[in-house]
Amino acid sequence: MPTQFDLSLFAAIHGFAAETLAPFEIGAADWLVALVPLVLAALWICGRDGDRRAGITATLAAGLALAVSGLVSFLVFEPRPFMIGLAANVLDHAADSSFPSDHVAVMAAVTASLAFAGRFRVAWILAVASGLVGVSRIALGVHFPTDIVAGASIGICASAFLRSASLRPFVAFVVRVAETLSARTGLDRVLPPDVTPGSSRKDRPIRRNMP
């Protein structure tokens, strides 16, 4: 059952955000997570300055975070706010365990991975989106604040784990496999003509205006 801290903070966020974010919270709670595959696809298609490796690492971190989150949810059952009468089930969500938040775990894993890889602009965008998703899902009675914090913690830990030296060969192998599949399926044809998969800006020819 939720702690008194969870109940108090939930009441504050639910009472404030339910009015302030009413026009946006359903879309934020359900659809902002779609930024994750869009960002990862963009990183792969751009294929420059290590973006592909960063994207693959972020994808693996998201998968690991989702697996850990699912395992914790299976082992530790916590009712969702709408299940104990604290809110309406606006999202028509299944009455399963609230702890932790899968959405936030995945988004935090990708955000942290891109931040670790130096993609700070994209990471900031995803960080803001993750915060909006967390607040919206609390406001809509799907999660308690602790669920959001736990999900974010799982995501960050998953991304940090995948940056360990012992896993670098595995990540490099996955990148090679993905690039092979990308080439065979013709996806690399959408790349700019002066960009080859995995190349960096310093490797590209410098175009100068001819007199």
Could you characterize what this model shows?
This protein is mostly helical. It has a domain at 32-161. It contains eight helices and no strands. The model is unreliable at 192-211 (pLDDT under 50).
What is the overall silhouette?
A: elongated
- According to DSSP, the number of beta strands is 0
Please indicate the percent range of residues in DSSP E strands (runs of 2 or more). Answer: under 5%
Largest sheet: none
Determine the structural class based on helices, strands and strand pairing.
mainly alpha
Order of helices and strands: HHHHHHHH
The chain-level mean pLDDT equals 83
In percent, how helical is the residue content?
55-70%
Q: Give the termini distance in whole angstroms.
A: 75 Å
- Work out the radius of gyration: 20 Å
Low-confidence segments, ≥5 residues, pLDDT <50?
A: 192-211
Task: Give the gist of this structure.
This protein has helices at residues 4-20, 25-31, 35-46, 51-75, 102-116, 120-139, 145-161, 168-184.
